[in-house]
What we know:
This protein is α+β, with helices and mostly antiparallel strands. The protein has helices spanning 7-23, 28-44; strands at residues 70-75, 78-83, 89-93. The chain has one domain (7-93). Helix content is 36%, strand content 18%. The chain has a three-stranded antiparallel beta sheet with strand order 1-2-3, with no helix packed on it. Helix 1 runs antiparallel to helix 2.
Amino acid sequence: xxxxxxxxxxxxxxxxxxxxxxxxxxxxxxxxxxxxxxxxxxxxxxxxxxxxxxxxxxxxxxxxxxxxxxxxxxxxxxxxxxxxxxxxxxxxxxx
Length: 95
Protein backbone atom coordinates (compact mmCIF):
# COMPACT_ATOMS: atom_id res chain seq x y z
CA UNK A 1 0.00 0.00 0.00
CA UNK A 2 1.33 3.42 -0.99
CA UNK A 3 1.77 5.78 1.93
CA UNK A 4 0.78 9.43 1.72
CA UNK A 5 3.94 11.54 1.37
CA UNK A 6 4.66 14.42 3.70
CA UNK A 7 4.23 17.99 2.50
CA UNK A 8 7.97 18.45 3.00
CA UNK A 9 8.73 15.70 0.49
CA UNK A 10 6.39 17.17 -2.14
CA UNK A 11 7.81 20.67 -1.62
CA UNK A 12 11.39 19.43 -1.83
CA UNK A 13 10.75 17.53 -5.07
CA UNK A 14 8.94 20.54 -6.52
CA UNK A 15 11.86 22.83 -5.58
CA UNK A 16 14.35 20.50 -7.24
CA UNK A 17 12.35 20.49 -10.48
CA UNK A 18 12.08 24.30 -10.41
CA UNK A 19 15.87 24.51 -9.94
CA UNK A 20 16.38 22.03 -12.78
CA UNK A 21 14.22 24.16 -15.08
CA UNK A 22 16.22 27.30 -14.22
CA UNK A 23 19.62 25.62 -14.59
CA UNK A 24 18.83 23.65 -17.76
CA UNK A 25 19.79 26.51 -20.08
CA UNK A 26 23.11 27.44 -18.49
CA UNK A 27 24.23 24.40 -16.47
CA UNK A 28 22.71 21.17 -17.83
CA UNK A 29 24.82 18.93 -15.57
CA UNK A 30 23.46 20.70 -12.48
CA UNK A 31 19.92 20.23 -13.83
CA UNK A 32 20.59 16.51 -14.24
CA UNK A 33 21.85 16.30 -10.68
CA UNK A 34 18.68 17.98 -9.37
CA UNK A 35 16.55 15.44 -11.24
CA UNK A 36 18.61 12.54 -9.89
CA UNK A 37 18.14 13.89 -6.36
CA UNK A 38 14.38 14.32 -6.88
CA UNK A 39 14.07 10.75 -8.17
CA UNK A 40 16.02 9.41 -5.17
CA UNK A 41 13.83 11.32 -2.72
CA UNK A 42 10.69 10.07 -4.46
CA UNK A 43 11.93 6.49 -4.43
CA UNK A 44 12.94 6.65 -0.76
CA UNK A 45 9.51 8.01 0.23
CA UNK A 46 7.49 5.79 -2.15
CA UNK A 47 6.18 8.81 -4.06
CA UNK A 48 5.14 8.67 -7.71
CA UNK A 49 6.55 11.32 -10.06
CA UNK A 50 3.44 11.10 -12.22
CA UNK A 51 3.15 14.87 -12.75
CA UNK A 52 6.84 15.25 -13.57
CA UNK A 53 7.63 12.18 -15.65
CA UNK A 54 7.31 13.89 -19.05
CA UNK A 55 9.71 16.66 -18.07
CA UNK A 56 12.90 14.60 -18.11
CA UNK A 57 14.60 11.69 -19.86
CA UNK A 58 14.34 8.47 -17.87
CA UNK A 59 17.61 7.16 -19.27
CA UNK A 60 20.04 10.09 -18.88
CA UNK A 61 18.03 12.31 -16.46
CA UNK A 62 18.32 15.45 -18.61
CA UNK A 63 15.58 18.07 -18.23
CA UNK A 64 13.67 18.46 -21.51
CA UNK A 65 13.80 21.82 -23.27
CA UNK A 66 12.00 21.40 -26.61
CA UNK A 67 14.19 22.45 -29.51
CA UNK A 68 17.36 22.42 -27.44
CA UNK A 69 17.79 18.87 -26.18
CA UNK A 70 14.64 17.05 -27.33
CA UNK A 71 12.47 16.66 -30.42
CA UNK A 72 8.72 16.34 -30.16
CA UNK A 73 6.70 14.73 -32.96
CA UNK A 74 3.00 13.93 -33.14
CA UNK A 75 1.75 11.22 -35.49
CA UNK A 76 -0.83 8.44 -35.52
CA UNK A 77 -2.27 9.32 -32.13
CA UNK A 78 1.10 9.26 -30.38
CA UNK A 79 3.40 11.95 -29.09
CA UNK A 80 7.05 10.95 -29.52
CA UNK A 81 9.74 12.69 -27.52
CA UNK A 82 13.34 11.98 -28.53
CA UNK A 83 16.14 12.94 -26.18
CA UNK A 84 18.99 14.45 -28.19
CA UNK A 85 21.47 13.77 -25.37
CA UNK A 86 21.21 9.96 -25.33
CA UNK A 87 18.82 9.09 -28.19
CA UNK A 88 16.10 7.60 -25.97
CA UNK A 89 12.47 7.73 -27.19
CA UNK A 90 9.36 8.24 -25.09
CA UNK A 91 6.01 7.51 -26.71
CA UNK A 92 2.79 8.76 -25.17
CA UNK A 93 -0.75 8.03 -26.35
CA UNK A 94 -2.86 11.05 -27.22
CA UNK A 95 -6.59 10.69 -26.65
